[in-house]
Amino acid sequence: MVKKRLMSTARGVALVRVVEMLRPAGERIAADPNARSFVNAFNVFGLRFMQLSGLSRLIGIEPMLTFAIVREQFVEDIIVAEAGRGLAQVVILGAGFDTRAYRITALKDIPVFEVDHPVTQAQKRAALKTVAIPANVQFVSVDFETDDLGTQLRSAGYREDVRTLFVWQGVSMYLTQSGIDRTLAFVAQHSAKGSAVVLDYFDARAMQGGEARVIRFFTGIMGEHVRFAIDQREIQTFLRTRGFTDIRNADGMQMAAPYLVGANAGRRMAKGVNVVIATVA
Predict the structure, then answer these.
(1) Is there a contact between 90 and 110 (Cβ–Cβ < 8 Å)?
(2) HEC sequence for 18-53
(3) Which domain holds residue 170?
(4) How many domains does the chain contain in total?
């Protein structure tokens, strides 16, 4: 059973996307006009007030907010780049309140499978009742405690013989290693050679840092506790032994480099969460 909470990490990230849209167009790192469907006006006002007043910097959450929006755009740019190289389908694991499939032009003719718990999906579809869901998007309900991911995906039309991109954002750090291994095994064993997975993870070396502690504190309040972290120096071996190659890791500085320029050069970014993309061998 999924507990109903006033705020979850999915809604929290949607809130960050909404507040980013309140910045002048030239200063936005990412843009998501659909995100407002998932948050209420009071929370939007509160977070924007905190930013404008400097309170978010004073209490130490501003770097976390910057990280959240940089990660959004960094992963989105990977999706667009992979679509440009030729994709037959996209699987978004733990889709939450992600809306990329509804607004990224490069995905409009590519089947997209949004995988998540049925309760979360019901909340998402209710919130998006005024948004037209593209015909290429399929919702795949999976209770990871009782359902088999492969069975549910295949019943929705997933194909194992075509190049696929798996997007796994904001999930791995809340799973046990056995849960991570099961999912990576499915990707490696049930997708075509050349398919890829993009995921984010906690760098174990940064777990004790001040900014990482802030991230862990707020995700803990939302009921999602960090269970998994790995030293970024070990991520190559970790993924290679699980059937992947061409492993490209980006730490916080590398993620931020394209976006924290010009008017955004002064925005501080939290460290400790990396994004990696790896190809099925």
Answers:
(1) yes
(2) HHHCCCCHHHCCCCCCCHHHHCCHHHHHHHHHHHHH
(3) 60-280
(4) 1
Q: What are phi and psi of 31, to 5 degrees?
A: -135, 125
Instruction: Name residue, tokens 């050679």.
Output: 193
Provide the token pair at 199.
């995921």
Note the pLDDT tens digit of each residue in 71-129: 999 999 999 999 999 999 999 999 999 999 999 999 999 999 999 999 999 999 999 99
Q: What percent of the chain has pLDDT over 90?
A: 77
Burial class (CB in 10 A: 0-12, 13-18, 19+), 109: exposed
Q: CA angle, 227 as apex, 222 and 229 as ends, to 5°?
A: 120
Residue type at 155 in one-letter notation:
S
Q: Which residues, including other chains, have CB under 8 Å from residue 137's CB and lie 6 or more apart? A: 101, 102, 112, 114
Domain assignment present for residue 30? The answer is: no
Residue 49 falls inside a structural domain: no
For residue 138, give the 3-state DSSP assignment: strand
Q: Smallest Cα–Cα separation from 278: which of 230, 233, 245, 231?
A: 245
Q: Which of 265, 180, 272 is nearest to 217 (CA)?
A: 272
CA distance 176 to 194: 27
The overall average pLDDT reported for the chain is 91
Task: Collapse the DSSP code of 275 into the 3-class scheme (helix H, G, I; strand E, B; otherwise coil) and give the result.
Answer: strand
